[in-house]
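New to this. Explain the following:
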Amino acid sequence: MKDHVTSAEIALDAYEGAVLPPGGLSFRGRPVITEALIRALLADLSVYITHHGLDFDWISLLTASQSRRSDREIRQERPDGGWRVNDAVEADPEHARPTVPKTRGYVSSVHLSSEGEAEYTVVFPGVPARQFRMASAELRTAEPFPEVETSRGTVTNAADAERAFIKVAARVLRSTGSNEVPSSADLVDHALLAVELGNWAGVPSRRIQPVLIPQIHRAMQGAAASSEAPARLAGRDFPRDLADGIPETPSAGRSPDSRPQPSPRHPRPDH
């Protein structure tokens, strides 16, 4: 039993190093990250088995891992009325342009073409050219993003997962940039969201953060500006140089100009 556990840990160590960016949390001792990592590994194995046509009953073995579909699965047609913002989609291999990623994405906006047909801006997580404007015929419905429990709430779609990842990555980078230790909750969320986004989209988890660096930097700048706001308010409340001392406060009921003036000294009479 112990040997099997050790072998599994060695395999997960290697897989973790392949899919997650270096310097992050290890799965060891962290069940949430371990579960996400195992799901990602099982999904990759299922694709590998299908790709090589191996005679392996992976369907029964991988019933808990449904995050990636093979080409053998039934195509999901466009829903009535079209897709909505945040819906999960993927390129239809029979009709999509060859330049469109073969990974999963989500609808970020809906448009009308010059012919009055619906078109969609689709974001593909982990892909350098993230956004593609696509016609309905190029798309099909993808498996929904799984719910992910983070320390700050439940994430229910890929768009929210990316937004949550940007925020937590900004907090982690701000902490490390200030020579501070990020909170354990942020480190867990950072690793978990990267694994789940990569697993769902069909890209290595280590690719999630690099393509989001501009958004992460903007989030860091916004957080820095918010933290400086109290200091600016304090500066407006105290316009004087505090090194000059605190100005005297007039007594109650007396205006500053009503204080008695010293009487002039009368000259002493000559004797």
Notes: The chain has six helices and seven strands. The radius of gyration is 30 Å.
